[in-house]
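Thread: quick sanity check before group meeting

JM: Hey all, I'm pulling together slides for Thursday and realized we never actually wrote out the predicted structure for the chain we discussed last week. Dropping the sequence here so it's in one place. If anyone has concerns about the input, flag it before I start.
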Amino acid sequence: MAMLRATVGAVILSLLAPVGGASAADDYPSRTVRIIAPFGAGGPTDVFTRIMAQELQNALHQPFVVENKPGAGTTLGTEYVVKSAPDGYTLLMVSGTQTVNETLYTKKAYHLMTDLVPVAPLIDTDLVLVVNPSVPVKSIAELIALAKAKPGTLNFGSSGPGSNYHMAAELLKNLSGIDIVHVPYKGSTGMRTDIISGNIQILFDSVPTMAPLIEAGKVRALGTSGHNRSPILPNVPTISETVPGFAATLWVGFMAPAGTSQPIVDKLNDTISDILSRHDIQESFQKQGATPFIMTQANFKTFMDGQVATWAKVINANHIVLIK
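JM (edit): ok, ran it. Output follows.
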């Protein structure tokens, strides 16, 4: 009889276990979810993150609040999330910058792909290479020729070491063999001011940010960074049309602290993917120069692992000074 009672108890527990797991996911979220953006306010990452936060709030009926925690090349905000409870109530916005930092920073308090778990991607958007109008070139080929004729004399700006804008230029250097000089800024505002004034000659920036300045004639667009021409700048060729193999888009996604339960991760991935699959969201994003980026959680992890490896090769090939 005792054995029978034990057997019956074990069966009941086994039946209840999945129900409990499902219930935990069904109850999530039951309070405010914080989204930590380790970037400054106003850039494309911030803009699209806030759009998604509102959509998640509408879908899951709890506030999703974006908090900007910039500093130290995204490592401060990233570390903050690493140290947060793995309960789904603190999420991280991640971009290519954090995958670059895995190689660029020799001392960090975390490892991106082990201390955090990928949840879902959000957007993928092209960059555009622009020059100050005083630079006497009108194409990527002419820029490369000028840079080779005057090595070390042209400066390119970025929002800081390891940023998408920095690494896109390093990739161009690597593939074309040119020598241009990096001028890092503390954020994006200074680099944009200086490309207009002519204090720097070259800049990679996001298409949505640069398009109005290009139209106003304040900068000259030479090429975009994706595989296909940008629908916002259809007359601007891709850089890969001149430099085969070049591709350096700005992508953004969500991560959570390692240990966050899989049902919660799955619920977030499913909800984000459903939102991004909507026609109105796709049309709105594409008008702003961004492509909704939809992947399963497993595929997003594979993608991010590949990004870490790709940028490690670029850093090593260009002998970029590591940050200690």
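AS: nice. The CA atoms of residues 127 and 207 lie 5 Å apart. The longest helix spans residues 2-26.
JM: adding both to the slides.
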